[in-house]
Hints:
This protein is mostly helical. It contains 9 helices and 2 strands. The radius of gyration is 27 Å and the shape is extended.
Amino acid sequence: MGKKGDAGSHTRAANFLLKPVALSNLVETFSKRYAERPGGYTRVLKLGNRKGDNAPQAVLELVDNPHDLRWEMTARAVGWDILQDKVQKQRVSTAMKHGAGETKQVLAAEKRIEFGERGGVLRPQTRWNVQKLLRYRGEEGLNELSEKASTHADKLLATPLALKSMFDKKKHIEQHNLAPRPIAGQKHVGETRSVLDMSKGRLGYQRQVPSKVLTMKKTFNLKSHHV
């Protein structure tokens, strides 16, 4: 009704909407946003069950909105896949120098790959999400998604370097400072740890106690027991 634009359609839409601001949003925002989209204006994202009464939860959202959850998730997945492909083919130093600068070209090529066809840089599910998101967004949507994906890829590269730099500075001041330990499920780009090691997280890294300390503890325990 909002996309038709005539007075009769606006009147019928006003009968469904309870607030005047909703009608203005329909005419001024949503009708323009979905002018080229024939349908499929909403998306349901399942959030699992709620604690307490175990009721199922979900988020109902309008697609292509400024805070689109699928858009953000897909952009991060694209950045991860492109960076992972670069690290496998190039040295890490080369990937750090150039980043994910060719993201737009990769996305344009992935749009042309048919569903189920092999090849490409992205994983099949990520490619499918990219094709659905960019179906009605045109060149502007392609530029926005590529920019978000490149930003996330640069962040993935910069985070380990920043942590290492902070650790080296602290280690220079305090010799007993230990390297930062990963949390459970954390994985860096190009890492080949098994799923079991990743799930352990910090528990998988045991602090090495010097043999001199162990000897002192053993001696102290023996003396205490003798007394």
